[in-house]
């Protein structure tokens, strides 16, 4: 990973034009054997992290195409890098959350959707991440009982702080609709 960081820095991949980023990701997908988890994490950081954290408006179609392409083969490393960092940003832009919601809704396999939810539940729920949980529930994937229990507990803990929040009410309604037997 350290050598790969050096190579990425030398090639200035973190600042390359986004249309070239799409080409680079296509090239990465053709590599055989697949990248290791650590190498994929390093590339996700170098290629996407700064771009996503700098978003102040919806991402370009080139950036979304590159993310979708990378995600098709290296979703776990991408989730580990992007979701974790976005959740750490206390005042992140709504575009970052929307981007991850779009990945959840359109690109991720069920196992990676569960990974995103588990990452969200590791941090205190805030109004900013409620759309992310809503996107997970909208996928209508069967969630493990332990994740559902953690979600219900997190919602109960945050209920007083988010009582006047419409997204919170929508999320609770979605949870009650999708998993009525898990909520008492």
Automatic annotation (TrEMBL):
Top-rank lineage group of the source organism: Eukaryota
InterPro entries reported in the protein's UniProt record: FANCE, Fanconi_anaemia_gr_E_prot_C
Domain Fanconi Anaemia group E protein C-terminal: 1-182
Coiled-coil region list: none
GO cellular component, as recorded: Fanconi anaemia nuclear complex
A Gene Ontology BP annotation from the UniProt entry: interstrand cross-link repair
PANTHER family named among the record's database cross-references: FANCONI ANEMIA GROUP E PROTEIN
Protein name per the record: FANCE protein
UniProt source species: Eudromia elegans
Gene: Fance
């Amino acid at each position: 990973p350290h050598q790969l960081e050096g190579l990425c820095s030398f090639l200035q991949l973190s600042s390359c034009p986004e249309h070239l980023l799409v080409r680079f990701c296509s090239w990465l997908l053709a590599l055989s054997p697949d990248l290791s988890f650590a190498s994929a994490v390093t590339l996700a950081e170098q290629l996407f992290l700064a771009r996503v954290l700098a978003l102040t408006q919806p991402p370009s179609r080139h950036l979304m195409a590159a993310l979708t392409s990378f995600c098709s083969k290296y979703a776990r490393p991408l989730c580990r890098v992007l979701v974790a960092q976005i959740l750490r940003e206390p005042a992140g832009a709504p575009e970052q959350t929307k981007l991850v919601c779009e990945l959840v809704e359109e690109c991720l396999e069920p196992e990676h959707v569960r990974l995103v939810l588990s990452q969200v539940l590791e941090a205190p729920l805030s109004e900013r991440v409620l759309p992310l949980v809503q996107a997970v529930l909208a996928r209508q994937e069967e969630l493990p009982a332990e994740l559902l229990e953690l979600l219900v507990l997190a919602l109960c803990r945050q209920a007083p702080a988010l009582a006047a929040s419409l997204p919170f009410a929508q999320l609770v309604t979605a949870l009650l609709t999708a998993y009525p037997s898990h909520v008492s």
